[in-house]
Amino acid sequence: MTIEYIPNTGFKMNSILFAWTDARNVIRENLNLKHKADDRIIELAQYWDGDESKNIKQKRDIYENYGGGNNYFFLNYDEDDKLEAIEFHWGASIMVGSVELNFEQDLDDCVSRLVKIDNEKIELEEGSYLFKKLKITIANSESLGGEGNGLGYFYASRDISHLIEE
Fold first, then answer.
1. Terminal CA-to-CA distance of the chain, rounded, Å?
2. What is the pLDDT of residue 53?
3. Domain range for residue 87?
């Protein structure tokens, strides 16, 4: 499976453009796949003196083995069920401009190729990088609890302000 990521727009899958802010029900119809809805509130208020604004409202659909392949990805939505992010955990080639990423590649190779199209790279933690202009995060398997320096995670979003420390 090959995905084309288009910064500030969305992504293409099977020649269909999925734009940031597309409606969840429309995306589900276009993908025509079995998915698992995973909507929940992650309670963090208790750690912030009861401030419920600190709770995380997660709305996402989980897809596995799209198109008969071995892949796993999430589509994340905002409170109004509009597309806001995509996360891949395995099983895809991802085109970012002229750069192709896949889950067999070494993370350092991915970073060195992405920095040619976005030099605003931030190391979030060991094995995890944010590219500000592209609005993506990539990480190796080890940083996710696995083994090795291979690409283990790709995240793209219409808004990355929550990832940038002030």
1. 37
2. 67
3. 2-163
